[in-house]
Amino acid sequence: MKALVHVCIFGIARHGKDSIKKVTLREMQSLLGSLNFACRVVVPGRAFCRRLIDSTIGLNKPHYRIRITSNIKADLLMWKSFLKNFNGLTLMPDRLWTSNEALEFYTDSAGGSTLGFGIYFKGRWAHGLWPRTWHERGLLSNITFLELFPVMVAIILWGSELRNKKVLFHIDNEGAVHIINKKSSKSSDVMVLVRRLVLETLHHNILIKADHVPVVPFPEPSTKCISDTNSNSEPSMDSITEESARLFSDSLAGNTWKSYSRARSVLDSFQLLYTLDKVWPVPVEQLVQFIAYLSLKQSSPATVRLYISGISFSHKERNLEDTTKNFVVSKMLEGLHRNHPQRDNRAPVTLPLLRQITDALPSICSSTYESLLFKSSFILAFFAMLRVSEFTTKNKSDSSTEALQLSDVVVSDCQLKINIKKSKTDQRGYSTFIVINKYRDNA
């Protein structure tokens, strides 16, 4: 079998002027038959048959010719390199999967021209800085590429100690997880790593797969940092970290954070669905496709614009170029609004409608107290033109001081004076007073 497959591959994958540019459909199908048979023993090799299979789609005549692309040739060269040293024997791997934690096997990467990667394996470690040429080529913005690189290096260094094992990696990058499991990527740069990674696992008879582990968010702000700053001693670094997280978190409203998080989640799902590389800054082409995808999913223009704003914030948060400001992206958003004009169907609350609402309260509420509570709230919101969040709390356990207190209300014979401590247009809480004069029909 090895000799048969090697002969089939050699003519196509060889280098130089003698390399074959095209083959017939019959020849490609013959090669695929041999490779599929080989994959019964060399299971990871199936990933490198996909491009060969795709090249035959739509062809139905045996004499039709297929162009040998650079990617197909690279896949075949991977097979050739493996078969060169393969003795035809493969041992059965371990029955159970072993996590990288159980093996004391960890890898991580950090994007940045002055940063790099690190690997730890059973008390031994390796690390390195990213080459300057990678920064010049823009590879440092490809987080998936950077996450895969230390995994490949680790298998090269210590693959012999993982021989015949099934290794389960826990990785916080969904793109890297998808590529490790599929052994394929649309990125030519990533495929260079994937081919070498698979080749090393084949040499050592290692099976690998990955599970996604969500990124642990910033710790919740605590009062520890406040107490530290009140003491005579200097604040600890933990307190400084918590305080920086708290200040950054307080820069946006809670609902805005939720919306922006939802935007990143929808983008991640879109990239995973169409096997797109998860890189920052997000390529303009991906943003264009993302907007078109949301349009076909019947998302409202306001929702799409909110998602793009969330992605824009993520770029700024990472100190990256904001590709959402691209001319084409802006025009697509404008086109979405033009094609889906929306009218505001909400009707204002008028004084007669307010009377109907308050008159119905006694028959709805469970007590006279509850009826009077809602009646006073509705009347106050109507005449002071307040949002609900500007004078109430979210729930009984909400300990914030933004809710209206007795000390915030001053009543006189002809007017009501209210102190609004925070509002949508006063996010910093400078507070303002609203004066409501007596209404002539005593509503």
UniProtKB/TrEMBL annotation:
<dbReference type="InterPro" id="IPR052055">
    <property type="entry name" value="Hepadnavirus_pol/RT"/>
</dbReference>
<dbReference type="InterPro" id="IPR043502">
    <property type="entry name" value="DNA/RNA_pol_sf"/>
</dbReference>
<dbReference type="GO" id="GO:0003677">
    <property type="term" value="F:DNA binding"/>
</dbReference>
<keyword id="KW-0238">DNA-binding</keyword>
<dbReference type="InterPro" id="IPR010998">
    <property type="entry name" value="Integrase_recombinase_N"/>
</dbReference>
<protein>
    <recommendedName>
        <fullName>Core-binding (CB) domain-containing protein</fullName>
    </recommendedName>
</protein>
